[in-house]
Amino acid sequence: MMTLFNGLFSGLLILIVLPVLVLFVQVLLACLPARSLPPARGLRPRVAVLVPAHNESSVIVATLNSILPQLAQGDRLLVVADNCSDDTTALARAAGAEVVERSNLQQRGKGYALDFGVRHLAGAAPDVLIIVDADCQVSEGFIERLAICCIDAGRPAQSLNLMLAPAGSGLKVQIAEFAWCVKNLVRPRGWARIGLPCQLMGTGMAFAWRDLPLIELASGHIVEDLKMGLDFCRSGKPPLFCPDARVTSYFPRSEEGLTTQRTRWEHGHLGVILGDTPKLFMESIGKRNGSLLAMTLDLLVPPLALLTLVLVAAFVLSWLVFLLAGMLAPALIASAGVALLGVTILLAWSRFGRQIIAFSALMYAPFYAVKKIPLYIGFLLKRQVEWVRSKRDDN
User: Fold this and answer.
1) Which of 65, 233, 293, 350 could join 238 via S-S bond, C-beta 3.0 to 4.6 A?
2) Topology of the domain covering 47-279
3) Is residue 347 a contact partner of residue 181, using CB atoms and an 8 Å limit?
């Protein structure tokens, strides 16, 4: 009986450590010397930039001003004013964008707004559709690089999507910026080193218009980007990471905005992990789809704070079992997982995080993880399943 328990407990701990191993491999690959991307071969395609916006009057003009100078003749910039009760519509039109208004309080969520915008664009369809969130700024040359990358590869293209801590932010937001950098820069860069796809990140995404029928946009899913990327991969179009194009935004300053944002992202991500990962593994192995397997392994890596909490809990429990029952194997597996996570985070920080957070501030990360326990308890007791807009700093 004890032998069976030892085997089952050890197997469970191996499953817990697996995401750490995936993360370590991604970080290690990302630290390899950067290889030059081949120059874009094709001509710049005709582009439509779609900006879904729900009460974004405080940020919409700055976003449009970063996009408009990059548009060429024949391009379109469409703002979908989705259930807006402020002056987003008027400001977007005054800035020079084409605007359509959508009002449907029953079908709430970004996916519905995207579907509404795509149907509006269908009358004069572009070659490439680019999606940019209303609170984002795009880098110089963003549209051309992302659109050509998408057309050349014949696959969806995801730009580098970074969230930055506003000036004067506390340690909590600085750690969140570092964690975001690991998630959206380091991990996809590592997979891209060996030709593997990345997850879609919600903004800074480009799709060939002819590929849009492969997915269903109209959805209230709170992490519609993850779902879209997996659906494209299933259809033979795994998303490609295009770090030469960059889109940036800022974390909310308010605690309410941060909490709403984190709850939506992390509850949605955890819901997909628990609900979809087993069948994604079976499908990728059954169909011998290496790209889908790589995306599933990437999906398996939870937020760093949760991964830290789970590993520490497993470490404590396994050594307690060792003291009570003498089972050494589980304790060694958990200890290896904790050590590997520590090495992985230090490696990621040394290569990519020095400009974001000081090493002394990084030591605060375990306390940051502890403070997020109520968020994860909320997932177990009252999971968020509907889209909720994050509160901006000034509205």
Assistant:
1) 233
2) Spore Coat Polysaccharide Biosynthesis Protein SpsA; Chain A (3.90.550)
3) no
